[in-house]
Amino acid sequence: MTQKVAIVTGAARGIGLATADVMREMGWRVALVDRDTEELQKVAGERDNVLAVDADVSNPQDVGRMIRETLAWGGRLDALVNNAGVARFGPVEDTTFDTWREVMATNLDGVFLCTQAAIPALKETRGAVLNIASISGLRASTLRVAYGTSKAAVIQLTKQYAAELGEHGIRVNCVAPGPVRTKLAMAVHTQEIIDAYHDAIPLNRYGSERELAEVIAFLCSEKASYVTGQVVAVDGGFESTGVGLP
Length: 246
Ligand code: NAD
Fold this sequence. Notes:
- The protein is an alpha/beta fold and 246 residues long.
- Helices cover 48% and strands 15% of the residues.
- The mean pLDDT is 96.
- It binds nicotinamide-adenine-dinucleotide.
- Nicotinamide-adenine-dinucleotide (NAD) binds next to helix 1, helix 4 and helix 6.
């Protein structure tokens, strides 16, 4: 049987690495893409059926090379997981334009660039794109002017791409994670935010990387062959309640 090939961006740790591991367990070969060279080489060296691609998703030259190196290695591309992301929290009045641009460059430009570059290869396989947004892109709360706006835009980008690429059999979906104790989240979640999430989430806890990865991998697989243009909140029920956050 032909082994399917995926690209997972931001795969050196966190949700991206867990996704790559679940997809490998399902028989995929996975190109791990990250700009953290040291961590990337370390995790790639510990795994079979992976390629390490040192790339910044906000850099068009890097993105072009990411696709070329993946195709040279795997011969095909069946799924792209746009997971790389950064979080910067702060009041709007303290958010500098540099911070705003930093967040948009990775979270939004990166998704646009990687998906656009992957289209020719995905047309060949009638493949799938899976974007990682956030519950912060579904609802507004304080401190998230750049992060939340970038993730809301990713949700719209998902729908735009799904509308346009459906005629080629390419599915484009989006997962909106609730809080997961990764390096990204723990750098911006104060104790007040942690407590508020525990209270507001019906399951009363943070999710795990693995709980996110299972849904992401499912949506990339043939089992989700009639699902496109969707946003799936994997958030312990947070989005369903409307309970607010600080
Ligand atoms: P993480 O910080 O553990 O991992 C993110 C990875 O992306 C890192 O390895 C980092 O080096 C890489 N990366 C960042 N910018 C990059 C760039 N420009 N080019 C290439 N690689 C880059 O974070 P995580 O929590 O696993 O986040 C994964 C995704 O999930 C992000 O899009 C994040 O916004 C989203 N998310 C996370 C949470 C959470 O609570 N952890 C909640 C909602 C959404």
